[in-house]
Amino acid sequence: MARSEKVIGRVDEKRVLDVVLASRDPELVAVYGRRRVGKTFLIREHMKQHLVLEVVGMHDQGTAVQLANFLMSLRNAFPAVPLVQPRTWLEAFELLRHCLEQPTQIKGKRVIFIDEFPWMASRKSGFVAAFENFWNYYASRHRDLAVIVCGSAAAWMIRNVVNARGGLHNRLTRRILLEPFRLDEVQQYLQYRRIPWDQRQIVMVYMAFGGIPHYLNLIQPGQSAAQCIEAECFRSEGMLRNEYRNLYAALFESYATHEAIVKVLATSWIGLTRDQVLARAHLSSGGGVTKAIEELQLSGFVTETFSLDKKSKGSLLRLTDEFSVFFWHWMHSTAAANSWLRQSSGRRYETWCGYAFESLCFKHLHAIRGAIGIADVETQAASWRYVGKTATDEEGAQIDLLLDRADQCINICEIKFSDKPFVISKSYAQSLERKLRVFRHRSGRHQTLFLTMITPQGIVPNRYSAELVTNEVVLNDLFAT
To answer: What integer pLDDT is reported at residue 332 of this predicted model?
Structure first.
């Protein structure tokens, strides 16, 4: 069975692929996830001993070019088989069927890997219908075949493959959503590359790049996080200097709408309601905008945070793709010409670190739950806010993250970024007490409240921490598997 030490992490995903290889039934697998997240590398490395064909769709090309590319892939995989140029996708898949009838040296499962599947399905090409026909009337009858379709256009993959209503409806046997690396996987990856960064260096680059393997591969031995960000994002020859310009165009049709939504969301750390997004982006309400928001969510760029009462009207949309946030805060303006090593200081930098660390925590809720001992308790993450309505009303309060637990408790999470152990002062303690009081009074909840402090270096023990704080989560906890 195929194994590869080069594939760092991805434990669950590799387990699924091993099940595919061991299966005695035909397998149709969909692999999807954000661009640059490592989908192709995972399949190539883990399944390489079983690949009989790999074909990669070409971006923004018509049917004739795609068919020519398909034929070249067939000729490379089956050089002994005489092949002629197909005129349609039905003919192309008939050629594939003919090739698969030839003797093979591969033992066990034979894997067909169609990468960038959505790019091959250009309008009126007939590609999807031809593929459906190939699977339903040939591949699904051969126990030794596994067909893996993959695409960075995650929203397209979900609509047209995972939740297909046509000939592929309920045909998938497995699906893999490949997400960015978590902190522990980034640490493993850098150790594999012999880059001895400590946890703080990893967090600093994660807040700019996210857990995207392609971006992390740019880190060079001997660099600090700040030096890497400087080299790749701010120098004219940097590999990520123009990445944003191509990111959304490669994933979405009518991507201008997606970019407008992302640009507006980048202006708000706490998130915006749908109506606020429409107003600030000067977009009209309608199917196109609704589809764009949904596609951004499905593709992992935007996250919807529901209020404690779980009403969608009060939900907030947050831009949670780290690189997109970093671009709009640091790279898009004339300030981008300045050295990052000079920019990464001062009040503006501290503010960015605070909110970027908060976003990082949202992506590591599994580690937070484990650190405070509720990994096995059913938990819903939510936000909550109250706005004072009159001059005599009590002051408003906002909680960006709380964990609503099935055991009748709620963890109120305070997230603070600091290079040193965080000190709860008298004034800050009063602010925390007020926040808990307002929440208790206005939320209508009567569960036990636990104040949970999430900080990189922990908190300094004093009378205020002793009176208020129930749980602490530190940087090392966020690196837990």
So the answer is: 87
Whole-structure pTM value? 0.90
CATH 1.20.1250 fits 368-478, yes or no: no
Task: Classify residue 251 by its DSSP letter.
Answer: T
| Rg, Å, the chain Cα set | 25
Within the chain, how many helices (H) and strands (E) appear? Answer: 22, 12
As assigned by CATH, the class of the 246-330 domain is mainly alpha
447 touches 410 (CB < 8 A): yes
Strands 145-151 and 110-115 turn out to be parallel
Whether the pLDDT of residue 150 is over 50: the answer is yes
Q: Which residues contact 69 (CB under 8 A, 6 or more apart)?
A: 55, 56, 57, 58, 61
Q: Which residues does 461 contact at the CB level (< 8 Å), separation at least 6?
A: none
Rounded to whole angstroms, how far apart are CA atoms 433 and 438? 9
Q: Residue 164 above 60 pLDDT?
A: yes
CATH 3.40.50.300 assigned to domain 11-177? The reply is: yes
The CA–CA distances, whole Å, from 91 to 117, 146, 271, 313, 362 equal 18, 21, 49, 50, 48
Which helix H or strand E contains 383, and what residues bound it?
strand 379-386
Tokens of residue 304, six digits: 């919807």
Question: Cα–Cα distance between 83 and 92 in angstroms, integer?
Answer: 10
In angstroms, the CA 463 to CA 425 distance is 10
Residues 6+ away with beta carbon under 8 Å from 331: 233, 234, 241, 244
- Percent helix, strand, coil in the chain, to 5, is 45, 15, 40
Residues 6+ apart with CB under 8 A from 395: 388, 434, 438
